[in-house]
Amino acid sequence: MVTIALAVFATTAAAKTELLKHDDGSQEGKRSMTGGMHSVRFECPEGEWRLTGIRLHGSRYGAGQAPNEDFLVLVTNEDHSQQIEIKQPYSLFERGPEKWVRINFDPVAVSGAFHVAVFFNPTRTKGVYVGIDEGSSANSFVRTASDPSAAGDKLDGEWMIRAYLTDDTAGAARRLMTNEQRTEQQADREQSIERELLGDARSLTLKHDDGPTDDHMNIQGACYTVGYETPKNVEAYVWQVQIYASQFGREHDSEAVSGDVYVLDQDRNILSRTTFPYSVATQRKDWISIPTLPTKVQGRFYVSVDAHGKNNKGLYLGYRDDPEQTVASSDSREGDAIRPAEWSGRFSNMQWLIRVKVADRPVVYPGP
Highest taxon of the source (predicted)? Predict the structure, then answer.
């Protein structure tokens, strides 16, 4: 008797992929925008999908070596109420003629209509030109980095940005998050970095605010000052200042324009000064961390920020509107001190969103 063994094989359908695009591959223009995001609206086919990357037709301008920084890919749902941020290195782009660049990232779950926006935080000396196909103009927008939830203005043409989708749902995928979820994720990242920097030092954040507000202001010639007390009058070292701010202005190089952070003693005399470039801020309102020189303080002390703001450039600094507040002031520099001026009372309701981190020993940032 002959026995025949039958092998039964389980078959699975191969993962399906989709390339979503609105351009026809021909570039008629290109653009780099200070404060603007290159945004494209896409629609998923029916079913469950994951965004695994984008393809962008562009080229980098500026120095021969790419800047040591990241650009931002922002994925949002239709009404921009849920977002996820993806950072990628500038070095993906080369100088020269525009060409297609594939930008891969961990899968992001998407469905229905969604938007992809790319923000390069360009300056006069660095940025990326993004190609424009002028054949149609229905799905591309210019959105402001300072308000990523806003719909933006329609572009006369289509950004040459394409989206890669897969229906392979195996494995983990990131999901679009609310602003609160994104804030929590960012805080976890910063805490991890801070633990590595501090080593055995113990750190404490001193603040008077409960978080960001929509109110912000640029006062020409003003130093934004907030007073603090070290706990139990102990000796401490200032090592970082955080401000809630956004950059404005187009006709300047944010890498060459700078502001100053001062640490003041109880009599408002200057103990230290740290200069920071505008490029630490973007056109998006956000918390900005500024490393300072290790500065010893004890008891009452002050932190003052001078952005050297003008009509055409500066930093909008966030504040809480409180006519009864007594911890903040708008001051001017007088030699080696920073004190309230005659005009300061006009802004006495503004409690500036400035925080300071102190440690029980000097904290020195590593060199570049």
Answer: Bacteria
Report all structural domains of the chain as residue ranges with CATH numbers, in order of start.
17-177 (2.60.120), 181-359 (2.60.120)
Angle among Cα 167, 170, 175 to the nearest 5 degrees reads 75
User: pLDDT for 103-129, tens place per residue?
Assistant: 998 899 999 999 999 999 888 788 999
Rounded CA-CA distance 327/304 in Å is 12
Shortest CA distance to 193 belongs to which of 332, 6, 365, 333?
365
Close Cβ partners of 339 (under 8 Å, ≥ 6 residues apart): 268, 331, 332
CB neighbourhood size of 269 (10 A): 14
pTM: 0.63
Measured between alpha carbons, how far is 151 from 138 in angstroms, rounded to an integer?
Answer: 13
Strand pairing report for 99-110 and 216-217: unpaired
- Longest pairwise C-alpha distance within the chain: 111
